[in-house]
Amino acid sequence: MIKANQEIYKQLLSIGDFNASKCFSCGSCTALCPVGLDILPRTLFRYAILGAGDKIIEESDAIFSCLLCRLCEEMCPEGVNIAENIRMLRQYIAEREYNL
Ligand code: SF4
Ligand code: SF4
After folding, report:
1. Ligand 1 centre and the CA of 67: distance in Å?
2. How far apart are CA 69 and CA 38, in angstroms?
3. Structure confidence by residue, pLDDT tens digits, 77-94
4. Ligand 1, atom nearest to 65 Cα
């Protein structure tokens, strides 16, 4: 079961322009990804909005395998800053796991 935590979502919003809430899970962004992340960005964004910190940590390998190339953003009809949002998830992981 996912443990929701509003504080984590607020923390992500405080890191930068975290606009994952614009994602409506259309799936268009996955077609161009050269890496083929183990988890879809839209799923990561659901975890983030729910503040499911443990699930975000579980997906650390995928989050750090993103190239931040932004190819996916060309397909997004909502203008989600996918790469930047993923970068902020990295920062969240670094702060929580390594106190960086
Ligand atoms: S920014 Fe990340 S998720 Fe988007 S296409 Fe590049 S590698 Fe894939
Ligand atoms: S293309 Fe944009 S709106 Fe669609 S799933 Fe990807 S991030 Fe969400």
Report:
1. 6
2. 16
3. 999 999 999 999 999 999
4. 7
